């Protein structure tokens, strides 16, 4: 802050394709913040450093059949990076998005203050909900040092059902997930063995034991189309030919990949007419295409928040909409 240097905070680097970030003067890695500070299996909570890898932590939690409900294929992603980018699991329709898993954060602001918010209990209504404010803020409000997350028990049984039509999923109230790509639609179920057997019996399609989660579509350009859930069928119909996609029914997100940006402008215009977004998740270096589209109506509030947490605006410049 004193020197006015631009600082880039880096975790695993797996979600660095958002926005138009400025070239930094200083890079701060969270790799040294990788410890598990506290794990309370009976209370379903964990306190972990922001630099801890999601995959490593999930492997530890599987020993007690628990999960953080973060993205299913995290690669090298860190917990702090997932929180900062606001990315959620494919199971968010049943088990809620990433921000709803956050109970407490310790954050260092742009001007060096240490801010602790939230509490290490599942039911906590004290004060402002500052801990979840950092989810999706791309580090603009501070460097996440550690976080307390609410865990979820892994049910003893699960199954995947292939559906002829996505509307068939309506036979189940709040399934674990309903995913559609160009090869078809899959319904994901979990619970006790008796519950899963009863749910599976409602369908005629092929059934596979367990949960085989697909990878996000891969390509030089990667996108996140976000629309009202009721508009999902139309959204899928508007995906340009040649684009690969994975539609997450129930939450209104289509993850897509393409060789280039052809068709993106029309798709973005349609999404924004519904109050939605077409966000660039990743693009080739040097490619010119607005990563966010029209600035959100609350942009002035974002600027005021950043002024409070990072007065000199040194952290992660350019990641947010509006060039913030």
Walkthrough of the structure:
The chain is of the alpha+beta class. Helix content is 18%, strand content 27%. The protein has helices spanning 54-61, 79-85, 92-95, 130-133, 193-200, 232-238, 264-273, 299-309; strands spanning 7-10, 26-29, 36-40, 45-49, 66-67, 102-108, 114-118, 143-150, 152-153, 157-163, 177-181, 184-191, 207-209, 221-226, 244-248, 253-258, 277-282.
Give helix and strand order, one letter per element, not per position. Answer: EEEEHEHHEEHEEEEEHEEHEEHEH
Percent strand equals: 25-35%
- The DSSP helix count reads 8
Which structural category do the helix and sheet elements fall into?
alpha+beta
What is the rounded Rg?
20 Å
Note poorly predicted spans.
Answer: none
Net shape: globular
Largest sheet entry: 8 strands, antiparallel
Report how far the terminal alpha carbons are from each other.
Answer: 17 Å
Count the strands? 17
Q: Roughly how much helix do the residues carry, as a percent range?
A: 10-25%
Numbering strands along the chain, what is their spatial order in the largest sheet? 13-10-12-11-15-16-14-17
Task: Return the average pLDDT rounded to an integer.
Answer: 95
